[in-house]
Amino acid sequence: MQFLRLGPVGDERPAVRTDDGVTYDLLPIAAKISASADVDGAFLANDGVARVRAALEAGELEVLDTADLRVGPPLAHPGKVICIGLNYRDHAEETGADIPGEPVVFLKTPDTIVGPYDQVLVPRRSVKTDWEVELGVVIGSTARYLESEEDALACVGAYVLSHDVSEREFQIERGGTWDKGKNCETFNPLGPFLVPAGEIADPQNLEMRLWVNGEIKQNSSTKNMIFPIAEIVRYLSHFLVLRPGDVINTGTPAGVALGQPEPKPYLRAGDVVELEIEGLGRQRQTLGQA
């Protein structure tokens, strides 16, 4: 199953697409699961996936006409957006950074999240806007002080394709933490859909790619993470409580603009970025100017 949210910005409607490609209206059953009547943390925590599967098997959902509907971010009301930096050895090496001994953690604000085909805006005075394809982990149940990787994976509700857009001058050269270069508006396209964790056979073996203006820039696999998903969730749970609807961006492989020879090909208005992860769909954004 693929969980989507379709419609204008701020007025998206939850939907589910089955393996045969048919999309069903999810609003009636979502209203019984979550107070927001949407695909959010409460939906995942309240057995939303199993209840939707049962409703599909019972023929209780109506087919939804998706023609001309915008694809929004597939998660409503995201909580924290927690990001792991330098989680691929080749990415650390290309940027001249040391291989981390523990996960490097920073935060993005939830309002950076936009739909997978929405416009991404190059910030004003930006000269180093960069791309990063990442596997997103959506928490489905509360995680705190976890000890085992098995318990950590049990707290994962879904996986999603995430684009951790970054402004490198703001991030690295302007002092303080990385957050200034990570939280510009539109800097986290998400989607096009959520896939329940139980339907991804091996999240540590997914091909991931990114293109800029048709030229491939990143081509790797989640198997190349330094800290795997289970360890990331376990580790984070000792520093903050992970709650249903939180998103973890698990890092990006080599191939970002920052790691390229001079002149580095940072993004400009008019550029087109496309990215995909095996089993999690494809995104496409045209860059605009803020």
UniProtKB/TrEMBL annotation:
GO terms for molecular function: isomerase activity. Keywords: Isomerase, Metal-binding. Signal peptide: none annotated. Residues 80-286 form the Fumarylacetoacetase-like C-terminal domain. Pfam families: FAA_hydrolase. It comes from the Bacteria. This is 2-hydroxyhepta-2,4-diene-1,7-dioate isomerase.
